[in-house]
Amino acid sequence: MLPLQKTGVNFYLFVAALAAIVGWGLYAYSTQLKDGLATTGMRDLVSWGVYISNFVFFIGISHAGTLISAILRVTNADWRRPVTRMAEAITVMALMIGALFPIIDLGRPERMLNLLMYGRIDSPIVWDLISISTYLTGSMIYLYLPLIPDIAHYRDNLQNTSWWRKRLYRILSLGWKGTEEQKKNLERGISVMAIIIIPVAVSVHTVVSWIFGMTLRVGWRSSIFGPYFVVGAIFTGIASIIVAMAAFRKIYHLESYITYQHFKNLGLLLLVLDIAYIYFTINEYLTALYNATDSELHLLSALIFGPYSLDFWFFAVGGLIIPAVIIAVPATRTIGGLVIASILVNIALWFKRYVIVIPTMANPQLPIGWGQYAPTWVEWSITAASIAGFILLFTVFSKVFTIVSIWEVSEGAEGQPNAVGKGHKGGNA
Amino acid sequence: MAACPYNARSFNWSEPPHSPGERLIKYSPEYPVPHRVGTVEKCMFCAHRVSMGRLPACVEACTNEGMGAIFFGDRNEDVVTNGKETVKFSEMIEKRHGYRYKEEFGTHPRVLYLPAGPAHVHKKRA
Amino acid sequence: MSRATRTLLLFILASSLTLGSSQLQLVNPMLPMAEAQAATQAKNLVFLVSAEGFNKTKDLSITVNEGDLVQIKLVYDDDYIGDNPHTIRVQGYGVEGTVGPKQREVTLTFRATETGSFKVVCGNETCEGHENLQGFVIEVKAPDKPTGAKPEPGAPELQKPAVRPNLAFSVSFPKIIRQGYALAIQAKMLDSEGTPIAGFPITFYTNSTWGPVKIGSAYANASGVAVLAYTPAREGVFQFAARFEGAKGFEAASAEPVIKILPSLTTLPDNEPILGIKGSVVAMVGLVIASVWATYAYVLSRLFRIATAKTTPTQHGESGKPSEGRTTVPGIRAGRLEEAS
User: Fold this and answer.
1) Is B38–A108 a contact, with Cβ atoms under 8 angstroms apart?
2) Best CATH choice for the domain A2-264+377-410 from the list 1.20.1630, 3.90.1070, 1.10.357, 1.10.1040
3) pLDDT tens across C297-317, in order?
4) How far apart are CA A363 and CA A293, in angstroms?
5) Which of A208, A382, C40, C241 is 20 to 30 A (C-alpha) from C297?
6) What global pTM score does this model have?
């Protein structure tokens, strides 16, 4: 509750810094609007650049969230309680940022509504629109439902606070009094959402992968792209939760709620998905290597030895092997180690998306030579702004609502007084 | 753009150059004329000229230069022309071994290529 | 033709040359030989066609005079093999016909207007005995010295006035002609006295967006009838034209009927994508998406019930658990809350 009541100078400085980056990104976007997409590094051959990489990256992170929280809820894993709120928030924030990128990539964003009015159902872009909007709506509901008792709690317990907060809490709490009927309805809603959100989340990243998989391009036309993307999404999602957990734990002193056990559990989950992703990666590249058609080899040699080898090997070693080792070795499986592994995973998987999008675009199917692509300052600025905006949204969210679900944690504590009770003492110490 | 395996589409990354006459044309969604920044274009076989009964600019220019190497026409009608001679499409494709790029993609592109065959060489000598 | 139905085509030629003359498809002349002889004096030849060659030999040579009406009756003679058609073509004249088990006899009729040596070959490269059907040569000789007047009516002397042929579309078409179905276009060439003029190529044209287009040519048979099989690729009004380009002693002639072609009963196959079964696929996917949104609506209805359940706390008696005062979040003890912050 403290973060909701007291705000320090550092917070304002932090927000100001993030806002400045976002502002810079907006300026970059305005130049892009003014002068056209020529301000980016994209050209006819490589017409998808870091914007699309970012899109896949953020949609990936969004899976953190809901999927983890929903699976843990459905399987009734009790240790989830302090983590779910964060995971659900990541989903909504990442989706809101990620969904912006296709719009940023449009040459005529003002015509975006035409996609709704004249879009053809044959187009994977329209599938994307449908699935992402479904997912965003669902994850917002899923974030909101468990918030209601907490909002009621803020409403009833935060006395000396601004008028807008009081008003916001009063409206959003929906008159929650914690009666049996309300509890029953809430539980029902949460459990239904937890189940429905899992197939929706899986479908979203599958559809995102189909944007690539449904084309006739070497390197994209792959039937495993759906599961490959979904596993990658959950992989980066968990990594993002670990980073967020560590950050909030440190800043808001949540050591009593988020314990090493949480990091360890999520770390092991991360290891499992890391191995799954390695498996998919081997599948993807080994079949192409062994088939060894000219076009596949052309692309693969550029990835493995050529101009994209640095990105590729950073992904393979830094994003898959090193994190696996860090987590697998007990000596490095500390909170610090896990955070380093998670950050590595996120950065490396961003490069993985880059390596998916750009080399294939740069490698045309007709013998007309390789395309060239290097992101410009506009693209880098907008990318930086999106990350800053993501953190900013999260920061603001944590100031308006608690980042740990109060009622769920207490509920869990009632069930097993020892579990959280212990953490409590630690927190006080 | 990304989906076309032939890289046949292009994008107006910045304000495209305009000819003086182009500015006078009222914009119609049927034709990519006048050109606009931020839009995708591809060769439409000069649909605006065809609707006026003229051949696409490339066909006309090629024939005017005395080469007549480009034929254009209507597949439903089974007729193509280079402005000088009008021939049956199916017959020409069969006899001159017309082919398409990347037939295996199954996209059935409407651009076919005619190799320089013996029929030519023979004709040239005659 | 509306723009919507127009499919645009473009060809890029690798060289700048124009196309040579079309291959001609000769549809079987229907008339027996006897009738032809009545019309004109002709070289009538009969050959057996089999895998062993023409008349079972590999080398064969005949000589005709320039201006002769040549009628070569080909008789299929492959009895021991299944379907083994031979497409016999007179190179240089372009007249051809196919014999096989289904069509055992065909007559190639043409006027020997060009002198030289012309090979008669089988054009069906996959047939049995193809290599044996390459050695038949027709020599067309120029007439002997002009002093020797040739009494051949088919090839009048230069001094004679040229025959002015009368070309007419003479045969009725089926009443209803639909797009995509073959139709036999026939033209008949007669002289002013009504005698058939046989053995000359008649070229057929039709109209198109880009002007007249040649759709093929056929040789007039003994009764002066040239037949061309033609499959209209579009609907609409067709202007056909038959043209005889003229020859030594014959003037050019042409005829032009108009035929209306009705649209095809079945749409011609185009590149239908695999999602062509669109209705059901879209309906199924739509059902799935709709059920997801219906679930959202259901959850929101629960929210609505939460919001409208306000009255419950006032009815303490009914509620199983009475409200625990100000701190209404279930299970949160006042003391712990502060620590939680």
Assistant:
1) yes
2) 1.20.1630
3) 998 988 888 888 755 444 443
4) 14
5) A208
6) 0.77
